[in-house]
Specification:
5-stranded antiparallel sheet, alpha+beta, 27% strand, 50s Ribosomal Protein L5, Chain: A
């Protein structure tokens, strides 16, 4: 069964940060080799405060094989308490287009390869477009509940 249409993973890299290290860390959030799977690591440049350049790295997972692989990795990597937090916060994490948002602490993933939920700040972003037909918020919530059931 298709749980999500696609998953976008991203991270912002400020001028003083090691861009290559952050791009590599983003790729390691995916449990397979993105180069071998012909998945592009997109790079964009944005202008931040004080005209500083911010690099944005993105990975888009589109196939069911890739999205399911990432979802399995995510379920195995999150603690019971983290899953509980996601379920308690389901309403604030699910937008009107049924996209579910998760953020992970940047430094904890970079230094320890541990996923730690955060509400903002320096983080890795995960956006999951929840698959439902017909599209409804309640059905999307059920998919998320089944995904992160404890």
């Amino acid at each position: 069964m298709k749980l999500v249409h696609h998953i976008t993973l991203s991270v912002f890299s400020k001028e003083h940060e090691d861009h290559a290290k952050l791009a590599d860390a983003l790729a390691k959030l995916v449990p397979f080799n993105i180069t071998e799977q012909k998945i592009e690591l997109e790079k964009q440049i944005a202008i931040g405060f004080n005209e500083s350049k911010i690099r944005i790295f993105k990975i888009l997972l589109k196939t069911q094989r890739h999205t399911n692989s990432f979802l399995n990795f995510l379920k195995e990597s999150l603690t019971k308490d983290q899953k509980k937090v996601l379920l308690v916060q389901i309403d604030s994490r699910l937008d009107p287009e049924n996209v579910f948002f998760i953020r992970f602490d940047k430094s904890n993933w970079l230094n320890n390869q541990e996923l730690t939920l955060v509400d903002g700040g320096n983080c890795f972003h995960v956006k999951m477009s929840i698959a439902t037909f017909p599209s409804s918020r309640e059905k999307a919530k059920e998919v998320v509940k089944n995904l992160f059931h404890i």
